[in-house]
Amino acid sequence: DQQVKQNSPSLSVQEGRISILNCDYTNSMFDYFLWYKKYPAEGPTFLISISSIKDKNEDGRFTVFLNKSAKHLSLHIVPSQPGDSAVYFCAASVGTGNQFYFGTGTSLTVIP
Amino acid sequence: DAGVIQSPRHEVTEMGQEVTLRCKLISGHNSLFWYRQTMMRGLELLIYFNNNVPIDDSGMPEDRFSAKMPNASFSTLKIQPSEPRDSAVYFCASRRTRGNTIYFGEGSWLTVV
Fold this sequence. Notes:
The complex is a heterodimer. Chain A has strands at about 5, 10-15, 20-25, 30-40, 45-50, 55-60, 60-65, 70-75, 85-95, 100, 105-110. Chain A is built from no helices and eleven strands. Chain A is an all-beta fold. Chain B has strands at about 5, 10-15, 20-25, 30-40, 40-50, 55, 65-70, 75-80, 90-95, 105, 110. The radius of gyration of chain B is 13 Å and the shape is globular. The mean pLDDT of chain B is about 90. In chain B, a hairpin with a 7-residue loop joins strand 9 (about 90-95) and strand 10 (about 105). The chains are: A mainly beta, B mainly beta.
């Protein structure tokens, strides 16, 4: 059973606008969340993370929001750039040193 | 520093043949993960090791799949016999034991015909 879900397989956004990628989880024990970015024919690379003690973490154009009561997190990219076009995976874990559970990914296309 | 190194990058094999995928961890990392990427399930964890010891292999599809860590820096994932439904991209990833981030290799693209 999928514990981390990304219900939008794809998303298209105009360059310069905001991209919002969503992720839901079912396990209330998850306390650490990450986003990975994957280009074709490459492995996923770490993008940004957030601990459950926070509700927001920002790194340049990327911001992750966590809503623990709704078991929902989102990744905001603003402004979106064509180089952001990739598949984005969210992942969750319980504590450190344990396994990560990944979603199915959302393919983002930023249109120039 | 070198990242996670996987080989082969591409493998095409006939149904029934044995397939061995290889992975070299990042130096100093103690945890090793094997993932399989499919459209339906995304990145699906097959097995992970801490300090060469398998911790959770509940994701291994069936007895045809086996994984080993003969030493602290190297792992193999073996499929015997292979079937067309095993066709996927297999990723290896590593992490420091108590680290919060895992680092992926570039993947092994397997096609079983």
